């Protein structure tokens, strides 16, 4: 498993990296929150310290959870109940207080890994999704409505495919921007709205993608989408 360790204490980071590597994990260590956010998509698990030089780890956790469901265990010396609750409510899967035993950390990582499904992962072997009379084929990147092929732009297809891989699951604006544009924090960008309108117009199925105000978008059928 590839593990991202976000920790600014060199001595602690070196010891933990050695211990995890010795048990078969590949560890990538960074010391800053911004570096951790940039590397989130290439790892299977995040171990997160809270005291980072460029900000509080709780803020990194909040930003991470806007775009990713990667498992996270907080590793910190902070024992205050309010901090523990903020971390868990903010999306951490577990919270471990330093100092701790490596075997306990490994056990907690395994428990978290087993119990968390990975949202957005397509069913094994699935190469297409059908919603009403709309068929979306991932390998050929084609969309048909009834018997007619719809010509989407590359980015329009990327947006539609992201939603189609988990029908009914709400994807936030930040998550879609991160996955398709590579930047989750282009808050002022209207590109996503333009592409959603393009998909609706070209398919002639405005109900295909539903807008949930303040939450995001989901692939849907049966109800008219918000404009």
Structure description:
This protein has two domains: about 1-115, 3-Layer(aba) Sandwich (Rossmann fold), CATH 3.40.50; about 130-220, Arc Repressor Mutant, subunit A (Orthogonal Bundle), CATH 1.10.10.10. With about 230 residues, the protein is of the alpha/beta class. The longest helix is centred in the middle third of the chain and has 14 residues, at about 100-115. It is built from eight helices and 13 strands. Mean pLDDT is about 85; it is low at about 115-125 and about 220-225. Keywords: DNA-binding, Phosphoprotein, Transcription, Transcription regulation, Two-component regulatory system. This is KDP operon transcriptional regulatory protein KdpE.
Apparent shape: elongated
What CATH calls the topology of the largest domain is Rossmann fold
Strand content: 15-25%
CATH architecture of the largest domain: 3-Layer(aba) Sandwich
Instruction: Find the count of extended strands (DSSP E, 2+ residues).
Output: 13
Estimated helix fraction? 25-40%
CATH class of the largest domain: Alpha Beta
Terminal-residue CA separation:
42 Å
